[in-house]
Amino acid sequence: MCSCSIGEGGRDRARGAPALPCTVAVSDGVGSAPAPPPHGAAEGLGVSLQAAEPNASGRASRNSRQLPGIRLDSWQGAARAWGGDGDPPWLGWARGSCSPSWWYTVLFSHGNAVDLGQMSSFYIGLGTRINCNIFSYDYSGYGASTGKPSERNLYSDIDAAWQALRTRYGISPENIILYGQSIGTVPTVDLASRYECAAIVLHSPLTSGMRVAFPETKKTYWFDAFPNIEKISKITSPVLIIHGTEDEVIDFSHGLALFERCPKAVEPLWVDGAGHNDIELYSQYLERLRKFISQELASQRN
């Protein structure tokens, strides 16, 4: 997913927000950011991960640019919950105001071929519009996170982010909403199948890697990567599924299949005419998220 505007009051024209790079330092809540690494096309999504490539030194070079409104961190305490390669992932906050309505924190697992820096403006805009804090992280090999992209590391990365929320920041599970977009639905579903939380949002989800690469696949083989379809039934928290009917990367049928298999699914959002990367430009996107969080989840708290 690209860093783009969030539609309100009808579909907006896509506006190319500047790509903001990932940070490798923290200073009073705002980190100085390295130059953005190049990103390849998200090819072969079903069977591989396409990550940002570092420069020749192995790390992105630094410059004086900043990420206003975002705090980035490389909390090494996350290593206790992390079993991947390299170092624990980089973490990022987009904090809300002190209003009592900001009681939820969204643990956001972003899409392929982007990083925290590129997503930062989107996180700030989304958090403001749905009245939630946004907490995110970079997968191994993405942005400033070390290691290599792999399915195993995806699960280790989100475990580390979850551990950071729970232990470092003291956020209770009932106040955490897991949000996964595209490839980010893979670690999201895995974590949600093991822990109870306030809710889950699956944005353009995939059923499994084989089913993306080979649409006629009907069963899950032992070598199938990213088997969301086999884990979705284990989730015990409310699940909102969002999918565009004209998705050209992960077919709409994936969202439908997960909805049918999920016992905790709430009313889904099928965005008529939306593709894989433009759902946020439709007014229904924010309307459904707001209703889900401020009405449906809030009613369960009372």
Kindly summarize this structure in a few lines:
The chain is an alpha/beta fold.
Would you write up a description of this structure?
With 302 residues, the protein is α/β, with parallel strands linked by helices. The chain has a domain at 108-300: Alpha/Beta hydrolase fold, catalytic domain (Rossmann fold). 26% of the residues lie in helices and 15% in strands. It contains 7 helices and 10 strands. It has an 8-stranded mixed beta sheet with strand order 3-4-6-5-7-8-9-10, sandwiched between helices. A two-stranded antiparallel ribbon has the order 1-2. α3 links the parallel β7 (176-181) and β8 (199-203). α2 (151-168) packs across α3. It is globular. The relative contact order is 0.15. Mean pLDDT is 74; it is low at 9-68, 74-84 and 97-101. It comes from Anas platyrhynchos platyrhynchos (Northern mallard).
Which features characterize this protein?
AB_hydrolase_fold, 26% helix, Rossmann fold, alpha/beta, single chain, EC 3.1.2.22, palmitoyl-(protein) hydrolase activity, 10 strands, globular
